[in-house]
Design a protein that fits this description.
N-utilizing Substance Protein B Homolog, Chain A, single chain
């Protein structure tokens, strides 16, 4: 597994848990990051940037997902799929990571952690967002 893929995986695990249990102490998050990423400072910082970006831009990310996910509400989505989509959307809208890389990374997370339909569901929504926002003006500000 590539290094940044591992950091995305750990960020996903923490965002998933935060979605279900928003009161987890910051010290526990830091301990989990250090333990799961072997103390690798670069990977820990990358995972923190992903989590912080999703948290900071969550209202805009969720609005974009609501717009792109026809016939689905965020509340109806599986918690894991919703958080994979949040990471992928953050990377598409607020970073310089190539769109196809962001989508491929999200699809890989969906294959590993989601249900049977998760990879195609994640791919379809993120592809729609890529065409919509990267084809025109991006609302990104964390570049």
């Amino acid at each position: 597994m590539r290094r940044r893929s591992r950091a995305r995986e750990v960020a996903l695990q923490l965002l998933y848990e935060e979605d279900l249990n928003p009161t987890r102490p910051a010290e526990a998050v830091e301990e989990f990051l250090n333990q799961r990423l072997g103390g690798d400072v670069d990977l820990i910082q990358f995972a923190r940037r992903l989590m912080g970006g999703v948290r900071r831009n969550r209202a805009e990310i969720d609005a974009a997902l609501r717009s792109a996910a026809e016939h689905w509400t965020l509340e109806r989505m599986a918690v894991i799929d919703r958080n994979i989509l949040r990471i992928g959307t953050y990377e598409l809208l607020y970073t310089d990571i190539p769109g196809q890389v962001a989508i491929n990374e999200a699809v890989e997370l969906a294959k590993r952690y989601g249900g049977a339909q998760s990879p195609s569901f994640v791919n379809g929504i993120l592809d729609r967002l890529l065409r919509e926002f990267r084809g025109g003006a991006s609302p990104g500000g964390d570049r």
